[in-house]
Each structure stands twice: as C-alpha cells, then as structure tokens.
Give the backbone structure.
Amino acid sequence: MTIKVGVIGAGIMGADHARILASSVAGAELVAVSDPDAPRRDAVAASHGVNAAYADAADLIGDSNVDAVIVASPDPTHKALVLMALDAGKPVLCEKPLATSAGDCLDIVGREVGMGRQMIQVGFMRRFDPGYVSMKRALESGDLGAALIFHCIHRNRQSTGYTTSEGLIANSGVHEIDIARWLLDAEAARAIVVTPRPSRLTTVRDPQILILEMAGGPVVEIEIFINAQYGYDVRGELVCEKGAIELQPRSDTVLRHDGREGILHGTDWRRRFADAYRIELQAWIDAIADGGAVGAGGASAWDGYAATAIADAGIAALRTGQPVEIRLETRPGLYAG
Ligand code: ISE
C-alpha cells in the first residue's frame, strides 16, 4: 500500500520533508505541493517530478489523490490547516508548533478527541533521534537509577526566521521542552528563566537559561543561544543517581588541520537531525498504512498542546523574572498510552 502525500509549504522544512519523502521513505509517494510563492513551489515540485502544485493549501487538502498531509507552512497557519485536513479525513504531520497558543492547540485536541481516533503527529523529530532514543533506553533499563538533572544546550549559528526574545523559548527551546517530557516521562511543574547580559551580536535577550522543575523531582536546565555564531550545536546530558549519559557530538568526520582537530557543525538543524527526520516520516507513514493511531509513536496533538503551554509558562517567567507554576489541562483518555 502506498500513501500519497501532499506537502503544504515549500520553505526550509517543507522542501526538506518533500526531499526525504521522495527519496527515503518506504510506502510513501509525494504527489502534491502547495505554497503561495510560485517559484518556491514550482522548484520543489519540479525537483521531484510532482505535477500537482497549488498556490492554495485548501486545494491540496481537497485533492482526492492526496491521502495524507504534511503541514510545514508558517506557524500562524497551522491550526486552520490541521483542522481542514481533519475535516477531510486526512492524517496530518504538522511541523511544530501545533498552533501558536495553548488555547488553539486545545481546540485541535478537542476536535481529534471528538473524532475518537488519533490522526495528528506533531513534528518533534528529536523523539526519533538515535541519541535521545539510547538515552531513554538507558534510563528505562533502571541501571542508572533515578534521573536527577537533564542538562541541555541548544545553539543556532544565527537566528532563523524569528527575532524576538520570546521566540528563543517558543521556537527553539520548545524542542527541549518536548524531549524532556518524553525522556523523563514527567510533566513540567514550574518554569524559571535567568538571562546573562545579552550577546552584543544580537538585539534580543540571547542567550537564555530556562529551568523546568519536573513533577517527581528531576530538573531540566536548557541553554538557548540562537546567535552562537560558530554553528548549530545541540547537546544533552542526563545525570542520574548511578551514572550519566550524554549525546555524542554528531559528525561524520573529525577534521585535523593546521594544528587543530575537530568535528564539523552544520549551519542548521537539517544535517544534525537528518536521521531523526527520516525515521519520523517513516513512522508516520507506517502508522497510516497500518491504520493505527497516528502520532502515538511520536508526538501527539496532546504533546503539541503541552509543549506550547509549557513554553508559554517559560515566556511568562522570562517577562516577569519570576517562577511560573505550570498547570496543564487533564489529558483525555484518547492519549492515555
Ligand atoms: C527551528 O525552527 C527548528 O525547529 C529547529 O529544530 C531548532 O533547532 C531551531 O532552533 C529552530 O529555529
């Protein structure tokens, strides 16, 4: 069985998803692309031999040849497009964030719960990254004892697409928020933000340190630095009672030259998380083909809501300089597993 996929948005992520789908995902066929920007849309369609290229995403969702939809358009469009896909009965992979406010995410959750089956996966691809998966297995083995501290570093070479102090948490730190919930299998209870004096190479409060106190005791400490200049660098170390486990710097090679030895950092996240994106898309396609709960093997719509709600608490802590208590809604039974 082949799942015919339409990709909405031909920007960085839409183009990358289209490329991965067309080249590396078994059981999937890229059949349509949409983007209001004609040159961008046509370039993606042409490079994969796709004939259906729409200016309007509604036409892609309405195309009877499209079985499933990837939403990789600008963040404020996500909610309407995800709901439109659900109305058309088409499973969705929505890039993060699921929607730009916790209330909008809850509207989507409510619609999915009303349908009685999971049809949405949110693009928190790190859940499929082999490094984080090893970390989770090590924790679950019990050999390391209980988790105490999860240190995270999230550095971008330069800010991409957003230029506000809030964006550091909403756009970048939200990945660590999601991976911490998943890794520790715990909800965040309190958010605290501390900031050094900002880098003089930016006009926003960059870097920031977001601290999450998780229910059950572990603390997550996240450095977010989106103008770190030297490259894209994501790190993580989980410290437990009887040991620690750290992500390996991911590089295909070690370069020795001119008295130095080192690894190469990419300019953005696509190279660092190439495996994660491919495995994520394969899991989404497999869940659709099996008729299973879409999103259950990755981030569900509920996880999309939780990440946005926790990011909102972090943003409130940044603005006020005070700790902010986090109170999530009650998780519906649909997402129990
Ligand atoms: C970007 O939007 C992403 O989602 C990347 O995964 C993240 O690492 C980056 O910081 C964001 O700007």
Notes: The chain has two domains: 3-126+275-298, 127-271+311-325.
